[in-house]
Design brief:
about 200 residues, mainly alpha, three-stranded antiparallel sheet, 8 helices, 3 strands, about 50% helix, globular, binds fe (ii) ion
């Protein structure tokens, strides 16, 4: 099997004060680890064991809810850790910045729309910046642990930046104040990662 539980690219306290160390520790070592273990148990001994996670998502409508939730949880959190960095924040640059400006007019307008997608996702889910199948940027939001690689989503594409809006991602530090957490995310957003993914998927 080619699935690996990824290392966290920084220490638990590296995103303080925006994302607190205790939340990071629980989120990574309990939640993410839990999704990964259950995903591994679900694919072990099946045809899915030899597929890539992207291939599994392509046919996820035929799979159990357990595989869908845990496979999504495994993949989505990997994107999420990379979507933040201790020296993150600021604005994107290069081709990604050009594409954001072309699509939304300016970065602030993009931020507003992304924050709105994250804030209005009812219950648990994600906000994404994706490159859709035509190579264009789009802001999306998915429920639970779904993502836009899954064939259950009407908009299909690859995530280049993801924000977890499950309460487990922010409740210890922000309680019910999801908008404050969303603002904090922009202070650590990893635009270098997003730009690299954009170059790869928009080519
Ligand atoms: Fe999470």
């Amino acid at each position: 099997m080619s699935f690996k539980f990824p290392e966290l690219p920084y220490s638990y306290d590296a995103l303080e004060p925006h994302i607190d160390a205790r939340t990071m520790e629980l989120h990574y070592s309990k939640h993410h680890q839990g999704y990964f273990k259950k995903f591994m148990a679900a694919v072990e001994g099946t045809d899915n064991a030899n597929k890539s996670i992207e291939e599994i998502f392509t046919n996820i409508s035929k799979e159990s809810n357990g595989l869908r939730n845990n496979g999504g949880g495994y993949y989505n959190h990997t994107v999420f850790w990379n979507s933040m960095a201790p020296n993150g924040g600021g604005n994107p640059s290069g081709k990604l910045a050009d594409a954001i400006n072309a699509k939304w007019g300016n970065f602030d307008k993009f931020k507003e729309e992304f924050a709105n997608a994250a804030a209005t996702r009812f219950g648990s889910g994600w906000a994404w910046l994706i490159v859709d199948d035509s190579g264009n940027l789009a802001i999306t939001s998915t429920a639970n642990q779904d993502n836009n690689l899954m064939n259950t989503e009407s908009v299909h594409g690859r995530p280049i930046l993801g924000l977890d809006v499950w309460e487990h991602a922010y409740y210890l530090n922000y309680q019910n104040r999801r908008p404050d957490y969303i603002a904090a995310f922009f202070s650590v957003a990893n635009w270098d990662y997003a730009a690299g993914q954009f170059d790869k998927f928009s080519a």
